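Researcher: Here's a chain I'd like modeled. Treat it as a single chain, no partners, no ligands.
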Amino acid sequence: MNEKLYSFILNKKHHAWRHEVTEDFAAAFSAADTPYAERITARFEKLMGAQEPHILEEEQIVLLRTTGKTPDVLTKAEWEAYRAEHGYVHELGYTSNMCGDYAGIIAAGLDAVRETVDTYGKREIDAIFDLCDRYRAEAVKNGRDDVAAVLAQVPHKGARTFREALQFFRILHFSLWLEGCYHNTVGRFDQYMYPYLAGDMAAGRETEESAEALLEDFFLSFNNDSDLSPGVQQGDNGQSMVLGGCDATGADCFNSLSAMCLRASKKLLMIDPKINLRVSKNTPIEVYRLGSELTKAGLGFPQYSNDDVVIPALEAYGYAHEDACNYVVAACWEFIIPKYGYEIVNIGALNLPAVVGKAISEKLANAPDFDAFMKEVDATVKAEAAAMTALKSAAPFLPSPLMDMLITERRYRNFGFHGTGIASAADALSAVKTHAFDRKDVTVDRLLSGLSDDFAKDPDLLHLLRYESPKMGCDNDDVDLLATRLLDDFADGLSGKKNAYGGIYRAGTGTAMYYLWHAAEVGATADGRRKGEPFGTNFSPNLFAKIDGPTSVIRSFTKQHVARCCNGGPLTLEFASSMFNAPDSVNKLAELVRYFVMKGGHQMQLNAVNADKMKEAQKHPEQYAQLVVRIWGWSAYFVELDKEYQDHVIARQEYTV
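Model: Modeled as a single isolated chain. Structure tokens:
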């Protein structure tokens, strides 16, 4: 590892070179009634021109951001008019959560690409060339002939070596962010980069040691300016890298670069890039062990996706076999297709506890039995899901000449919805069944009264619902199959619906930030959750559920028809970091992940946590700058989070194996 470079980036010393852009692009563009594509391109040209070349000591992969946050191209009034015109605009209105054809451009070079693009694309490529030429001149001035030689080849021409390919990627990734695209994912890095590494090794240009040092330098580049990416919290920047998985013939693709990436990530202990492992029933246990070493290190990744479930699910959605086999993940966990996917996989979320609560408040009193009540729940969930499709059918993005180069064929235009609070919703239904119908120890009036006043007058009911009712995660078929039914309803409500681009809607089991946002919108729920208390994150048990252990949770959360709600959303488990003091802990964790895959789970994410350490970090943040935790689909430095997110991580279940 380049210790000087590592320390420089970790301590954010490069931020001293940053300057804020004070030019009000939006106001000037608005006054001139400038077309959107011209706005994006003109801003990009100016921002690229404003970058100041800096090459750090012994740095091999260059390009540092020296401007701050990218100014907008539309005024506030223009955004309001734009949203009013289109009905719905996704997030910031710029392209996000996509994975372009890095492999094709890295192989071809931008000279060749320039011949195929429109005027805006040509101008943006020329701006990239100008910055790289200035970096090359800086390298020559500082005697860095190695950097100058790389920039003499890329990005004009296609990469020939591992270092050239890594540098080319950095240039493309850097440029996307500066143009205004965000949550730009990395894709199947070990697949499109491996040929360059293998060629260098065969020719003697790199040794395993030198290649690994180069890769570490490349990984550090992800942390140079990731704080400038828009996100809900610091660290939510979408730099997701996928490793392993199979190809279209079913052959396993995990290679020496895959393993090298896992080792580099463990060594650096930084939150970027976020590692995702594609696995299957044929994945060797050694791969799970390598992944478990990262969990032990406390990084909150890798996240695992099961090819045995995901690929058939994507094919059932209508993706071609070769594209389904090439899937990657978006910023968090949603499944997307490199090169051809122009999709919005996080367009909204269904608040399942709210929908179940609505059915309880409106339909329970007149239900003759639980079966009749569940039919009302089914209808309510399906109706709410269908209603979301009507509200979010079209979602235009502002132009992106760069993304148009990376995704030249928009083969897939599907939308995806998260499903928030599945455990809370299923637990609530189970409580209704258990107490109002089976045992008849709680009247409907008493239940509705308790929900209406947040159990303030009935603490006994709160205790009964919270601690003595069946909970998802305990391998109880009754409650687990209620979750299955809810997710089937969710999928049924979206089935057959098409968006304005002819794409379908995909149901998912992830929550993103909605485990706090949606929970804040819902009063007390019949699972014993009080107003203001959060839901469990993603596909996981309630925070207050009494769980026997992780295998019990896995059995509960692999009974659902996850192929029908395969937008993504991992079973999320938190492990006590003290567990890893045992010498066989990594092997046990690897076996647990494999057990999940063999049971047919679709996605899993693990976190090693220490509640006492996090509480100390809240008191003394300066002493815990590199304490990493998983938030939902991404990892962050604990001390950089808002307190509500810190508190949620502290409150999660801690398991052992």
